[in-house]
Amino acid sequence: xxxxxxxxxxxxxxxxxxxxxxxxxxxxxxxxxxxxxxxxxxxxxxxxxxxxxxxxxxxxxxxxxxxxxxxxxxxxxxxxxxxxxxxxxxxxxxxxxxxxxxxxxxxxxxxxxxxxxxxxxxxxxxxxxxxxxxxxxxxxxxxxxxxxxxxxxxxxxxxxxxxxxxxxxxxxxxxxxxxxxxxxxxxxxxxxxxxxxxxxxxxxxxxxxxxxxxxxxxxxxxxxxxxxxxxxxxxxxxxxxxxxxxxxxxxxxxxxxxxxxxxxxxxxxxxxxxxxxxxxxxxxxxxxxxxxxxxxxxxxxxxxxxxxxxxxxxxxxxxxxxxxxxxxxxxxxxxxxxxxxxxxxxxxxxxxxxxxxxxxxxxxxxxxxxxxxxxxxxxxxxxxxxxxxxxxxxxxxxxx
Length: 400
What we know:
By secondary structure, this protein is of the alpha+beta class. The strands form four sheets. It has a four-stranded mixed β-sheet, sandwiched between helices. The chain has a three-stranded antiparallel β-sheet with strand order 5-11-10. It has a two-stranded antiparallel ribbon with strand order 4-6. It has helices at residues 16-26, 46-53, 77-80, 90-99, 104-108, 111-125, 133-138, 140-150, 157-168, 177-198, 204-213, 225-256, 258-266, 271-282, 314-318, 352-369; strands at 2-6, 29-33, 39-43, 58-59, 130-132, 292-293, 297-299, 302-304, 310-312, 374-375, 397-399.
């Protein structure tokens, strides 16, 4: 164990993989200072992270946290009663209710609509020019898909993107901005649920409202009003945030590795397998959701006391050479199965099939439509989100 690592001042935001390499090599578990200045334990090695992700003694429920520890987002109860703060049996009950919408079979039915959205966005770019690919493509594609799935009206989608950006990477110069975004989102979801109750439609949110208001389709399935609103918030937030980051970093990896890009252009059938390497190599989350031991637990060679905060580094685990040889090399020929970018165990990412499909289609459309896509400028000048949670580009300037 090493001690007194300050994640914000230790270079993690600027050079995450170099920092994680050093931490992973020096010790399996580190005592760190979290994003809000509170103490936590950071786990970096693949086997330890994988085991911890599935350990039922590591709770997501903040009620098991000791006072003064890192807890993550501070949300009002109406947005906080979501899967990222729950253990079984509540987690099992709610995941079963919403999981029907995210099966691989159900998601595959969205292939044609997603491709139409991708083509529409690329039509707007024209056949040649320059653009910020995040703003013009990687961001509007997933927000359109998830909003269509939930039934969110077009006019609110830009606002939601702005609120999400503020929450993921708060601006220290605007300390009230995150609180204002939460208030705005709470008002938005309150009005949206009221509108859906008045005029139900053929969308996921209307289905969830019916489950809430009709007492559950399976008798034992119930949703409280806070759970309903929190679930809508989580699906919309995570469905947008993770996928926009993944599309952006995947495109960047290809543009920085022209040999790999050429091979993928020559054989687009490799795209589904390639997505696994994209998420392993530079996934959308540096850390899993914080956890709190229900009793003293041993991770690696360290005993973590009950109630203290445990941070599991998905990014460090996915670059662990003990699991992935030459792990810092981007290689679309690699067998990247077993990566932890989307979690492991009962908290495995609910929207993983949708994120995979959107990324696959987004890249397929780019490869077909923009054959001369190139990075515009020096990669060293790219700006990344100042966030320990979300790994993503603020902009991706390209020419085509």
